[in-house]
Amino acid sequence: MPWPTLSNQRLLLPFAKLTASGWRSTYAELDRHYSPSLRRPIENKGQREMHPAKLLAIILALAMPAFPGDVTGRVLITKRLSKRTVSQAIYDLRGAAPPTARADAGLASEFERTVVILEGKLPAPNPPVTITIKQLDTSFDPDLVVVPVHSTVQFPNLDPIFHSVFSLSNTRSFDLGFYPKGQSRQVRFDRPGVVQVYCHIHSNMYGAIVVTDSPWYARPSEEGTFSWRNLTAGHYRLVAWHKIAGFFRTEIEVPENGTAAVTISVPVVENAPR
């Protein structure tokens, strides 16, 4: 089937009226513009110019977007990953009795230490936000957050001792220096990636900031489940990041007007270094 020749390019003009005049009137416009005076033979003998109905079908096939699909997923963790928190000796710069580090309950869900992100054909990132990670009881609270690119994180010190928050991560390195209770510092994150945060004074303090340019991200539920709706059909990569175990990835296909069910495993190696 030949592509429309220069003589019938006028057929494209009525298509611009599609939204205003509707499908039926647009077809009528095509038929009206496709008058006998426009019908001229093309170079290949025995072939005729494309009928407007066929041309309209091709244009619509190219212009119509794919129907959206959904994703339902589950993070599968078969063994406990995080170590029990050990309270360490703390040098008190202010002379006050330091607070006791909070003990790991031992039954804390590993899903609380996990972030899932979808990579692929994505719209623009979510708008940036400003969130707070407190320094409380010589811990970061919360100790894991996920934010869109260009977001800002505030680090207020709520302990009666000094803290010194820093990161050596390639995504965003910084050093906020020493500051006492009641003061705060903030950092903006303009690149996607994982930023691991520590305190110069208290070696037991460890937090993580996951920065993403994808609008599709989530923290799994207590059962490890997550879901997204109304995604463009196509190929995607599902990324899971665990605060101790690191990155895990799997490929998925999102169908048109359907649901892709996916399970992503976070395997554990016995006696692996943490």
- CATH class assignment of the largest domain: Mainly Beta
Task: Tell me the total number of β-strands.
Answer: 17
Helix-strand topology string: HHHEEEEEEEEEEEEEEEEE
Corresponding CATH superfamily of the largest domain? Cupredoxins -  blue copper proteins
Figure out the total of helices.
Answer: 3
Let me know the average pLDDT.
Answer: 77
* Gyration radius over CA: 29 Å
Walk me through this protein's architecture:
24% of the residues are buried. The protein has 2 domains: 6-63, no CATH class; 68-266, Immunoglobulin-like (Sandwich). The strands form 5 sheets. Strands 6-12-11-8-9 form a 5-stranded mixed beta sheet, with no helix packed on it. Strands 13-2-15-16 form a 4-stranded antiparallel beta sheet, with no helix packed on it. The chain has helices at 12-15, 18-33, 52-63; strands at 68-77, 114-120, 130-132, 134-136, 139-141, 144-148, 151-156, 163-167, 174-179, 184-189, 193-199, 206-212, 217-218, 225-232, 234-242, 246-254, 259-266. By secondary structure, the chain is mainly β. The radius of gyration is 29 Å and the shape is elongated. Helix content is 12%, strand content 38%. It has 3 helices and 17 strands.
